[in-house]
Amino acid sequence: MATLLRSKLSNVATSVSNKSQAKMSGMFARMGFQAATDEEAVGFAHCDDLDMEHRQGLQMDILKSEGGEEGAESLEGDIHYQRDGTGPLPPSASKETGVCSELSGQGKPKITAWEAGWNVTNAIQGMFVLGLPYAILHGGYLGLFLIIFAAVVCCYTGKILIACLYEENEDGEIVRVRDSYVDIANACCAPRFPTLGGRVVNVAQIIELVMTCILYVVVSGNLMYNSFPNLPVSQKSWSIIATAVLLPCAFLKNLKAVSKFSLLCTLAHFVINILVIAYCLSRARDWAWDKVKFYIDVKKFPISIGIIVFSYTSQIFLPSLEGNMQNPKEFHCMMNWTHIAACILKGLFALVAYLTWADETKEVITDNLPSTIRAVVNIFLVAKALLSYPLPFFAAVEVLERSLFQDGNRAFFPNCYGGDGRLKSWGLTLRCALVVFTLLMAIYVPHFALLMGLTGSLTGAGLCFLLPSLFHLKLLWRKLLWHHVFFDVAIFVIGGICSVSGFIHSLEGLIEAFRTNAED
Question: Where does the source fall among the domains of life (predicted)?
Answer without folding.
Answer: Eukaryota
